[in-house]
Design brief:
The complex is a heterodimer of chains A (about 1050) and B (about 210).
Chain A: H1 4-23, E1 41-43, E2 49-53, E3 63-68, E4 72-77, E5 83-88, E6 95-101, E7 104-109, E8 115-119, E9 126-130, E10 143-146, E11 153-157, E12 161-165, E13 172-177, E14 184-195, E15 198-209, E16 214-222, E17 228-238, E18 244-248, E19 256-262, E20 265-270, E21 277-280, H2 281-284, E22 299-301, E23 311-318, E24 324-332, E25 339-349, E26 353-358, E27 365-371, E28 377-384, E29 389-397, H3 400-403, E30 406-416, E31 419-428, E32 433-437, E33 444-446, E34 453-460, H4 485-500, H5 503-511, E35 529-530, E36 549-555, E37 559-564, E38 571-576, E39 582-590, E40 599-607, E41 613-621, E42 638-641, E43 645-654, E44 661-667, E45 672-675, H6 679-689, E46 693-695, E47 704-712, E48 719-728, E49 734-740, E50 751-753, E51 759-761, E52 768-775, E53 785-792, E54 798-804, E55 814-818, E56 821-828, E57 838-847, E58 870-878, E59 882-887, E60 898-903, E61 908-912, H7 927-931, E62 959-964, E63 970-976, E64 980-986, H8 1000-1030
Antiparallel strand pairs in A: 1-64, 2-3, 3-4, 4-5, 6-7, 7-8, 8-9, 10-11, 11-12, 12-13, 14-15, 15-16, 16-17, 18-19, 19-20, 20-21, 22-23, 23-24, 24-25, 26-27, 27-28, 28-29, 30-31, 31-32, 32-33, 33-35, 34-36, 36-37, 37-38, 39-40, 40-41, 41-42, 43-44, 44-45, 46-47, 47-48, 49-52, 50-51, 52-53, 53-54, ...
Chain B: E1 2-4, E2 13-20, E3 37-40, E4 45-48, E5 54-61, E6 63-70, E7 74-75, E8 78-83, E9 89-93, E10 110-112, E11 116-117, H1 129-134, H2 136-157, H3 160-172, H4 183-191, H5 195-211
Parallel strand pairs in B: 2-10
Antiparallel strand pairs in B: 1-2, 2-5, 3-4, 3-6, 6-8, 7-11, 8-9
The chains are: A mainly beta (about 1050), B alpha+beta (about 210).
């Protein structure tokens, strides 16, 4: 026996196990609290406000209420721009009006239904919610006003129902309904001075449909009871509701007015009478020289003044090129009932945004005009209407390239000390929201354009060692691009010398024992608010594990915004493509290379002067957002095609000159253009075109899918598109969901190993797509059904088809496809009255054969063989309503995959693929199934610990995009749609880096302890060995 | 409370309302998050809750619905609601079971009490010496190490007969054959997320070998 060597081994193995056990993470793949906000960040967006409500306060309000076209009502801190609270309403719940009432805010919302809510000023929680049964909302027929005496609300909805609601409880005091089948649509309510016989009245204004135009109808209701007092039918010809303004009123003592434009006249009716006054517009504006070049009829501009004021604006487009606006401010003269001009705003180029407010401490009106006539700055002009003079004319820096023109503005004035302070809130065309304040530190802006993100391209950053073209090793921006070798050498030497200065600190950091006990990083609070416009871009480098990336979002409004995936999502650059650019596609055509920056191709569709479609392509440096112009004739930074956009995709060709990937653009003339169009690229494309198959115009709502092929004419060198196949869907079915395998996906394993070590081989066809169609209103009284098709996109054959009956038509249907898997979800109404209703997640797995160890007898896969995959399908009850679906992607595809669901409850949930395995045994698992570690069949777990976004409210997720990192275990997850949420997720846990829990101190302590043990036991062992030799 | 309004425009549209309560003994609905929503049919109809915890669906056609509560704070039970005028019923249901069973009827007006506060995080297991030694694998290792020290002494004390007997017993016992683990299988397991049990099987292999 030789006991000592194994004994030593045993000790070491104990030590090893100690260390290993310390490393093994907890078994659940959930977040731990200290990670929240460290590995992820969340931007809360609300969209571009188009409505504001202020609590009128002499000292200036703390917060401003805004409503946006994203159906959000929010409260924003006026001084800092922070979001205090927001209420994210449903997709169809349009905000018709908001109004500050006794410090809180009243909202009128809805489309199919109608809600009046009083939202709390501090939390946004409704105090009460009034929703009349069986009523909805119409386009213009919603209005609210409050009565002077008791502060109760008069609410109009559907253009027909007028109610008085108690503003404290939401209880209905009275209800007046227009006669059924009435030709009048009401659009406004106003409390104003009554007439003989009725002192306390509420006027309801409506437009009565006539043969050619509308005529005005005014209904007077008794304010206390809602009884109809009188109906005034005013003889008039009004074209549209925008030509009518309600003015004055707001108290039973003040006169109310209606002003409207009727052909060449401005007519004003004092409410309670039936004889309007009339002024000829031409005469009215004859003194204003700017209106001489009037291009279009004058229009009203609603200044958003509170009730009781009779100032309004008349504006018109002037100038030779339709490019300027002139406007005059008018006020109604109480004695004559006619309007007179009180201020001429003059002519200004570009778009103007208007707003007005009451100057604090007075009853005077201040009017704001915001406009720009310079690419770098915009001008805010405030006019005191009574004194008829400009009180503020402020130039503010506002980059046209980023924000373009004003779309909305809101003026607020308050007293501070002796003077009057001004705050101006405004939205711009790109969707961002800004505030200007007299106090410089209180000007801010929110990049709300990110709320309109529709697509993202994820750009890997260059390594630090491979410095880029623009920035050298030390991070200095380079001046000269071409340098000699000697210069390079000197530069390198100096940079190394520069780096030497960090050496002592580096050594100290290792020598310092406290570095052993470093705590995990702590979440830093982040604010979406940008203060000032930051134009300096720090040099961007990849981190050690490639977790840091640039996320380039394209928005519905035509803006590109580059966001740092680390650093809490700092905005790196943004660029607005004005002139109606509809960004169709953004593609990275070159990744960061040695000395070459990454290049992003932006493909947008616009219209030219003659309303013809034009497709434009821009090449942009993805690190800076500037045009990327290499100086080569064949690589322009901007180019265009005189045709509409159909599709653009990358070809597996790289051009030899610029090392960019060749882009293939198909336009609506069915013509192909490659970018670039150099000779070698054309040759390569010709060779490739034989096997180039693709699908076009597959979109939600389509009734068929079609496949196309590229053809190159030998004589003319024309590259065209030829249809090859079409799959028309049966009558009544239309596409509701589409999914394709991501082109960048890596499949690590060819097959799946069974319990008995047999293998079933995965179906590896890269050219199949999932199409789900729905028939929402079948003819013979059937419930809606959906059909799932797996279609080979090369030859158009249907590989698999399944139908689900009794599907919910209203709920969203989602599908995703990866490797040999398809996952889709839908709402099931149940077959019989006793079957459960709920969401179902269906998982399909495609295999080459249903037999184990059986492969297709061919070395290569061809789409033109007749083999069909063997499909295993299973459905699982799923408890969550989802709005977006995605899958994790890793570098080599070895890690397990998680299916990511963007939930309607504003969270992101990660479900491991094992739970969606169609082979999960439905009866007691056999030994083989246990060996394969299949989980017995059960519904998808409903566990909040699977939420990547924990308790955050990530509003309205429309898309989830993932990107691999250099760590096989880890995926960067980007969820967007309104809010943006970015996190890192490891579906199989982070097996390739040390656990977060791992502490160096533990390791050191263990080693020290082991050394001590060895120190003690060594003499013992030596003694023993000595004794063994003796005896 | 369920009220039926015989509306002129839509046939058999019903109104459904009820209350949510907070968690704990003296919970006030005011503490509920303003983000809380009550859904019918997976979001076909949705309602906010007011400060007193009330939710309201003003205009829902008669039929059977699944009512669920989306709250960032608490987990609420899911309810099957059969809207049919005065016959309106509500029953608790759970995911994955069919609705033929009408057990667990709920009182009307509907008052929903949360099951528990929602947990989003897994508490981090800090380093504890006791937990390290309470680990079954650790205990196993300890036992085998102990055996390593004790066995030679025991063997030395044993007489030769007993020794032979034991040897015979060992031969009779069919030791399970430990094949070399199949790399592809391990990887496949690994990629399907079976990491936990593959790591639990390996220490058995080592300890078994040591015994031989």
């Amino acid at each position: 026996m030789a006991p000592s060597p194994p004994r030593g081994l045993a000790i070491w193995s104990v030590a090893l196990w100690t260390i290993l056990l310390a490393l093994i993470a907890t078994t659940a793949s959930a977040l731990d609290e200290s990670q929240s906000g460290v590995i992820d960040w969340h931007h809360r967006w609300i969209g571009a406000p188009h409505m504001t409500a202020n609590v009128r306060n002499v000292r200036g309000s703390n917060s401003i209420y805004v409503a946006t076209d994203k159906n959000v009502i929010a409260s924003i801190k006026t001084k800092s721009g922070e979001l205090l609270w927001r209420q994210v309403l449903g997709e169809n719940e349009i905000v018709h009006a908001i109004r500050a009432v006794t410090g809180n805010v009243v909202s009128l919302t809805g489309t199919k239904d109608f809600h009046v809510r009083l939202l709390d000023s501090k939390t946004g929680q409704p105090h009460w919610d009034f929703s009349p049964a069986g009523e909805g909302s119409s386009e213009f027929g919603q209005a609210v006003t409050s009565t002077r005496e008791d502060g109760n609300l008069i609410v109009l909805n559907e253009g027909a129902n007028v109610r008085k609601l108690n503003s404290k409880t939401g209880a209905q005091i009275w209800h007046w309904k227009a006669a059924a089948g009435s030709a009048t649509t009401y659009f406004s309510v106003l409390e104003a001075n009554g007439f003989t016989g009725a002192e306390d009245v509420v006027y309801v204004l409506g437009l009565q449909r006539g043969i050619a135009a509308f005529s005005l109808e005014v209904v007077a209701l008794e304010s206390a009871t809602g009884k109809l007092v009188k109906t005034f039918n005013i003889k008039s010809k009004i074209d549209k509701v925008e030509d009518v303004l309600t003015l004055g009123g707001g108290s039973p003592l003040k006169d109310g007015y209606v002003a409207w434009l009727e052909q060449d006249y401005l007519k004003i009716l004092s409410l309670g009478t039936d004889k309007p006054t009339q002024s000829t517009l031409k005469v009215l504006i004859s003194d204003i020289p700017d209106f001489e070049q009037l291009q279009a009829p004058l229009t009203f501009v609603d200044l958003g003044l509170p009730e009781g004021y009779t100032q309004f604006l008349l504006a018109g487009t002037v100038g030779e090129y339709n490019d300027a606006k002139a406007a005059v401010l008018l006020e109604i003269d109480q004695s004559t009932g006619k309007a007179g001009i009180i201020y001429d705003f003059g002519e200004r180029t570009g778009f103007s945004a208007w707003s007005a407010t009451i100057i604090p401490g007075t009853e005077d009106v201040a009017v704001l005009r915001a406009y720009r006539n310079d690419p770098d700055v915009a001008i805010l002009e405030v006019v005191n209407a009574k004194e008829r003079k400009v009180t503020l004319e402020q130039e503010i820096p506002l980059d046209f390239e980023k924000f373009a023109h004003f779309t909305f503005a809101s003026l607020e004035q308050y007293t501070k000390g002796q003077g009057v302070q001004t705050r101006i809130y405004f939205s711009t065309m790109d969707g961002s929201f800004h505030a200007f304040s007299d106090v410089e530190s209180e000007s801010w802006y929110r990049e709300e354009s990110l709320a309109y993100a529709k697509d993202v391209e994820i750009v890997d950053l260059p390594e630090r060692k491979l410095w880029t073209q623009d920035v050298d090793e030390v991070g200095h921006v380079k001046s000269a691009k071409n340098e000699s070798i000697v210069a390079h050498y000197i530069e390198r030497l100096t940079s190394h010398v520069h780096q030497l200065k960090d050496l002592p600190a580096f050594l100290l950091s290792y020598a310092n024992p406290s570095s052993l006990f470093t705590k995990a990083p702590v979440a830093v609070p982040y604010s979406e608010v940008q203060i000032g416009v930051n134009n300096t871009i720090q040099p961007l480098y990849r981190d050690q594990f490639g977790l840091r990336k640039i996320l380039i979002f394209s928005t519905e409004k035509g803006k590109l915004i580059a966001v740092d995936s680390a650093n809490k999502g700092q905005i790196i650059w943004s660029r607005f493509f004005s002139m109606g650019h509809d960004i169709k596609n953004i593609v990275i055509i070159r990744h960061a290379n040695v000395r070459l920056p990454p290049v992003l191709a932006v493909i947008a569709q616009t219209e030219d002067g003659g309303h013809n479609k034009v497709t434009r392509m821009y090449r942009i440096n993805a690190l800076t957002g500037k045009d990327y112009d290499s100086g080569n004739f064949f690589f322009p930074s901007a180019s265009w095609i005189p045709a509409g956009y159909l599709s653009a995709f990358k070809l597996p060709i790289e051009d030899p000159d610029e090392k960019t990937q060749v882009l293939c653009l198909v336009d609506d003339r069915m013509h192909i253009t490659t970018f670039p169009t150099t000779e070698p690229v054309e040759q390569a494309f010709k060779a490739l075109s034989e096997d180039l198959y693709f699908t076009l115009e597959n979109k939600i709502g389509g009734k068929k899918v079609s496949g196309y092929k590229a053809i190159v004419s030998a004589e003319t060198d024309r590259m065209d598109v030829e249809p090859t196949w079409t799959v028309p869907f049966p009558e009544g079915e239309e596409i509701v969901a589409l999914a394709e395998r991501p082109s960048y996906e890596v499949m690590s394993s060819l097959g799946r190993v069974l319990g008995d070590r047999g293998v079933i081989y995965k179906y590896q066809n890269p050219n199949y797509a999932t199409v789900i169609t729905a028939n929402k209103t079948p003819k013979n009284g059937m419930a809606p059904y959906i059909t799932v098709y797996l279609i080979d996109t090369v030859k158009g054959s249907i590989l698999y088809q399944a139908t689900h009956e009794n599907v919910g038509a209203e709920q969203k249907i989602l599908a995703t496809q990866f490797e040999n898997n398809v996952v889709y979800t839908f709402w099931s109404e149940g077959e019989t009255s006793t079957s459960a209703k709920g969401f179902q997640a269906v998982s399909l797995e495609l295999y080459e054969s249903n037999l184990r160890n059986q492969r297709t007898k061919s070395d290569t896969f061809s789409s033109f063989t007749a083999e069909k995959p063997h499909v295993i399908a299973q459905s699982f009850p799923f408890s969550q309503a989802a709005s977006a679906i995605g899958v994790t992607t890793t570098k080599a595809g070895i890690s397990a995959k998680d299916i990511l669901f963007g939930l309607s409850r504003h969270s992101i949930m990660a479900i491991n693929q094992r739970y969606l395995d169609p082979r999960r045994p439905t009866s007691a698992p056999t030994a083989l199934e246990k060996e394969e570690m299949l989980i017995p069949y059960s519904p998808i777990p409903d566990d909040a610990r699977l939420f990547l976004s924990y308790n955050l409210e990530v509003a309205n997720i429309k898309k989830i995009v993932t990107s691999p990192t250099l760590l096989e275990s880890t995926t960067v997850v980007v969820a967007f749609g309104q809010d943006v949420f970015v996190t890192r997720h490891a579906a199989s846990k982070t097996f390739d880096i040390l656990n977060e829990d791992f502490s160096k101190s533990q390791l050191v302590l263990t080693i020290v302890a082991l050394a001590a043990v060895l120190f003690v036991t060594k003499p013992m062992v030596v003694n023993k060995q000595l004794r063994e030799l003796w005896y | 409370m369920f009220n039926l309004y015989s509306s002129l425009s839509s046939v058999s549209a019903a109104e459904l309302n009820g209350f949510l309560v907070g968690f704990g003994e003296n919970a006030h609905p005011r503490e509920l998050s303003p983000q809380t929503r009550v859904l019918l049919s997976g979001g076909q109809y949705s309602s906010m809750i007011t400060k007193d915890g009330k939710f309201i669906f003003a205009n829902v056609p008669e039929g059977t619905y699944l009512l669920e509560v989306q709250s960032p704070q608490y987990t609420y039970p899911t309810v099957k609601v059969t809207l049919a005028g005065k016959e309106t019923k509500a029953n608790l249901v759970s995911l994955g079971f069919d609705w033929s069973n009408n057990d667990n009827p709920l009182q009307l007006p509907l008052t929903l009490v949360p099951r528990a506060p929602t947990t989003f995080f897994v508490p981090r297991e800090g380093f504890k010496l006791s937990s390290l030694f309470a680990n079954p694998m650790m205990l196993m290792m300890g036992a085998s190490v102990l055996m390593l020290f004790v066995m030679p002494k025991l063997m030395a004390n044993m007489d030769s007969e007993a020794m032979e007997e034991m040897q015979g017993m060992q031969d009779d016992m069919k030791m399970p054959s430990f094949e070399m683990p199949d790399i592809s299988a391990t990887l496949a397991k690994f990629s399907t997320g079976g990491a936990s049990s593959s790591s639990s099987s390996s220490p058995q292999v080592t300890s078994g070998k040591k015994r031989q």
